[in-house]
Amino acid sequence: MNLIIDNLEAGLPEKKILRGISIEISDNEIHALMGPNGSGKSTLAGVIAGNPQFEIFEGSFSMGGVKISEMESFERARAGLFLAFQYPVEIPGVTVGKFLKRAVELRRGEEGRFSVTEYIRELRNMMDYMGIDQSFINRYLNEGFSGGEKKRMEILQMLMMKPNFAILDETDSGLDIDALQVVAKGINRLRGKGFGVLLITHYQRILDYVKPNRVHVMVDGRIVLSGGPEIVDELEANGYGWVRDTMQSEDVEAKA
Predict the structure, then answer these.
(1) Quick one: CA dihedral 100, 106, 112, 113, positive or negative?
(2) CB within 10 Å: which end of the chain, N or C, has fewer?
(3) Which domains are present in the chain?
(4) What are phi and psi of 50, to 5 degrees?
(5) Nearest-angstrom CA–CA distance, 113 and 123
(6) SS3 label, residue 81
(7) Which of 116, 106, 110 is nearest to 82 (CA)?
(8) How confident is the model at residue 1, as a pLDDT?
(9) How far is CA 29 from CA 65, 66, 99, 188, 212, in A?
(10) Residue 120 region, left (φ>0) first, then alpha (ψ -120 to 50), else beta?
(11) Which residues pair with 12 in a beta bridge?
(12) Contact between 123 and 160 (Cβ < 8 Å)
């Protein structure tokens, strides 16, 4: 099963942001997406997840051969797509335990039904794994959580739902080194056949713990560079000016 983004052009109704994005991710790969602020990375995450504020002008994306770009957002989630938000929202009145139980039921369907005892056992084990206090089961989702607690909670949701593909939108943003290591541990737990990731980040540090198979650089709504993890080292050493210089050199060569 692959996640294929094919010549995607999308954005706000009055503004095109993504300009011909094409990426293919296998379900056993982690791809990192990097780029300067305002390049369109979070827009891509929102479009794939089905955020209604965005429109698709051209192109499509599919998962396992199914064109999920034509589905509603909840249908994409049930099909196995997961989005970790850059800014996780608070949901007052809905406890972590009840939210996750219903989400897992919808994701696994009739064939994956489980008893309440099995669910609680699995949830508690995963909370221990993520270093989340057991009392959070009865707290309202993300209400009063610190930034690090919200990000850990996102990864806990991912571990419980076991998606086929995850779009992680700056999951490392605002994390101290301890929280970063725990979040990376959660991502790596699912790594392997049946799980692919598009990891959106500004920084090298999470990629020291979650090693990408491939790295893409987005500038002005376009993928301008793709390659191996060595791209991360170049960006860390030379910044995005190196990418722009490379693009200009290629333009000069093409015109020569």
Answers:
(1) positive
(2) C
(3) 2-88+163-255 (3.40.50.300)
(4) 100, 25
(5) 15
(6) strand
(7) 106
(8) 84
(9) 17, 19, 29, 11, 7
(10) alpha
(11) 15
(12) yes
Distance between CA atoms of residues 31 and 231, nearest Å: 12
Residue 155: per-residue pLDDT: 97
Give the residue carrying structure tokens 């089961």. 137
pLDDT along the chain (256 residues), means of 10: 96 96 96 94 96 96 94 94 92 95 85 80 96 96 94 96 95 91 96 94 92 95 94 88 68 40
Pairing of strands 196-200, 165-169: parallel
DSSP secondary structure string for all residues of 26-69: ETT-EEEEE--TTSSHHHHHHHHHT-TT-EEEEEEEEETTB-GG
Could you say which DSSP state residue 86 is in? S
Tell me whether strands 140-141 and 91-95 are parallel, antiparallel or unpaired.
antiparallel
pLDDT reported for residue 214: 97
CA dist., res. 222 & res. 252, Å (int):
19
User: Amino acid identity, residue 31?
Assistant: H
CB-side neighbour CA atoms (13 Å) of 19: 11
- 189: phi then psi, degrees, rounded to nearest 5: -60, -35
- Distance from C-alpha of 141 to C-alpha of 166, rounded to nearest angstrom: 20
Return d(Cα 23, Cα 214) in angstroms, integer: 10
- Distance between CA atoms of residues 37 and 5, nearest Å: 21
Indicate the burial class of 254 (C-beta count within 10 angstroms; 0-12, 13-18, 19 or more): exposed
